[in-house]
């Protein structure tokens, strides 16, 4: 300020002198004319000087007034330009604004400010050379900025004419205008694009230096020194922290070692105790494999059992009353489970530790296998054995997958390793026990070697504890023994159930890939050009429209056209093919009109289709702050806005689309959204994947109630379980006088402080996900449809939600009933309008581009919205699942549900029969032949079944040739004799 004031004074002084100098000759003349000729010139000069002194204040005042008026005029002009730039200036204002934009381009927005302040500055520093220099620098800056904008927005196009720059900028209020364009035209051909950028940026920097009178390099020097100092301090701080961390790690390591030592000692003690007990109580029938060494004592035992001596057969392991043997074996079994989960390194650790356990000499015989074979092989065999049992497959089946220490596959890739956790509970349950253990037991290990066999025998024996069939087979194990063993196992399971569940560790967002930055190409210009082309094309066909808005989404861009008065919307729709041709677009979709807008939307695919990575959506505030645990990050809509929705409000979702259109990826994004948002205590999942390969990767996550169901028959059972659970929940709601899950959980929350073992627990929301309904509908159409409909009608309030995907949107898969009960739909690309109508009751999905391009039509939307679905790759899913399985301990699958589902499955197997004929088929056939009369009503009455089932039996009998086809109102003919029918049953049923 002081400098400026000084400048002002000196300028004023100089101005005054100059004015005096200029005016001196004139006054001299005047004075000379007036005075007598004889007077001397000196006298004249003196007088002139005297008169000048008198006029000086007056002249100064004149100049000031002139300057002030000029300043006011410039202020008014600047304001007019400013308001005109924003479209409030009337027609004259528009013309001025067009001119300014045409001249300077985007920079014209700054023009009014620059104009006013520069003029004000120049006037107040009149005659000051530096002031003029600064003013010039401001304009230089303005011009360089215009040219830089021109290069950024429009790149350089040598074919453009000079007036094109003016016209483009004045029309669209962007670019660099005529001046920017001229500069580009001058620099670009001569120096190339980069050279032009360099020159213009340097010019702009020079202007800044001139204006501010400050050196950029000096600043850089000071900041470099600062950065150096802070880096030095940081390094010292980091060193200190590292030292502390090292110390802590060392302490932790020592603690761990100590713990391991104690545990090993305990294990050893238990083991010894166990062996002693076995000796004391004369263990009977442990292993029937006579190939194991040290036959002496054991062989006697085998004789005691009296089982066949085939090496392949394995018999029951009798557990001693109250003895610690079961928990011990349990412990080993669990350790092996954990080993499998934690990978090869842990397996090796365990090997070392296991080998360090000392075994008493008298037990050597039983444990010979451990020493005979290579220890790593043993563990591989152990792992493979556990897997065989858990999966219920034969030893041969699983032998191939016995993981070698070096090439143990990651958990999430190997389905055989994914389900170990749910094997644990099977001890309690005779039904599932059979399913899981019976096979390996009956077949016996074939290729696993002695070690494998022994281990299978031991673990298998434990599993058999409650198996009623085995009870009969083993005359030695008394009732009391069995009860005791049952009690001990039950106690153990109860204990494990009562363990405090660890808190859910949410997967870190870093497990998902970072979104790639898209290069800032000339998208805006392209869009504008397409808009003009679109307008022009329609105009050529006599349809006048204006493009009122353009929304550019990740995959498609929507041009909103406002038709002129009197233009029929149908005319635009009819021109779809011509528009497609003129825009050279693969396909376009016309939304006429856009709901809630007086415009027609034309959706044109983008040249570059950008995927929407899931991480980008999960990182947004919309998702993070979404109130529901069942948040689903759908994708981005046509305007690039993030779409997040609540699955609970859908409340059931149908996803359909052709193969490869993105359904599985969509289901993956749903599941991943849930994993990133919800605690397994609040949300549980049941996944049904008849395709086997799509969802099995999720085995092991803590949200799963049961392992992913891949058998279509079991899937029907899972849906039935859903119905049963729903009914049970409604009963609970009625008991507590609440209307829905939220109310129920609120009530439970209120009584959480009451100490009562039997108090009800909080119920989680359940999401049942089916990837490929068509496969289920093929296996059990009636049952699946019934369950889906029942669930869809009632399950919302019970907190059970269905998500069903199918690639066959035909009416026999998505039946009218299913459709009516699934209010929210997502349609991916399909091949025909008919398919589209099956999914969303309207055309449109056949125009989608595939790869996640969807029509999102949840309950409450008036029309489907076009959304580009989020993308998550298999490797990202794998990483998250691996993280969850590792960090959230062993998954406790629900035995109860497994049991119920397998019961339903068994029942279905029994009633359904192997060849899918009804259970009453044979009886009904015999009855009809006996009565020589085939009528559905009669079957209904005799077998007390419903019309549908009776009609189905009749159809089956007709297919089998027992009765003839329908003959209108007449009864069907009976075509087979009793003998023929019996023969048929023997052969085919
Ligand atoms: N949202 C998306 N963004 C980008 N690409 C996607 C998206 N969704 C799917 N894709 C691409 O499409 C391919 C097929 O997707 P997906 O496997 O989900 O199809 P699908 O409909 O499940 O097929 P199918 O019924 O045969 O299993 C994916 O491999 C992926 O490359």
TrEMBL record:
GO terms for molecular function: ATP binding; DNA binding. ATP binds at residues 657-664. One of its GO terms (biological process) is cell division. Residues 639-837 form the FtsK domain. Residues 232-277 form a coiled coil. SMART domains: AAA, Ftsk_gamma. It is found in: Cell membrane. The chain crosses the membrane at residues 69-89, 101-123, 135-153, 190-211. Pfam families: FtsK_4TM, FtsK_alpha, FtsK_gamma, FtsK_SpoIIIE. PROSITE patterns: FTSK. Keywords: ATP-binding, Cell cycle, Cell division, Cell membrane, Chromosome partition, Coiled coil, DNA-binding, Membrane, Nucleotide-binding, Transmembrane, Transmembrane helix. One of its GO terms (cellular component) is plasma membrane. The keyword Glycosyltransferase does not apply. The keyword Membrane applies. Residues 1-59, 438-483 are annotated as: Disordered. It comes from the Bacteria. It is a multi-pass membrane protein. CDD domains: TrwB_TraG_TraD_VirD4. Residues 27-36 have a biased composition (Low complexity). Essential cell division protein that coordinates cell division and chromosome segregation. The N-terminus is involved in assembly of the cell-division machinery. The C-terminus functions as a DNA motor that moves dsDNA in an ATP-dependent manner towards the dif recombination site, which is located within the replication terminus region. Required for activation of the Xer recombinase, allowing activation of chromosome unlinking by recombination. PANTHER family: DNA TRANSLOCASE FTSK, SPORULATION PROTEIN RELATED. Homohexamer. Forms a ring that surrounds DNA. Belongs to the FtsK/SpoIIIE/SftA family. This is DNA translocase FtsK. It comes from Murimonas intestini.
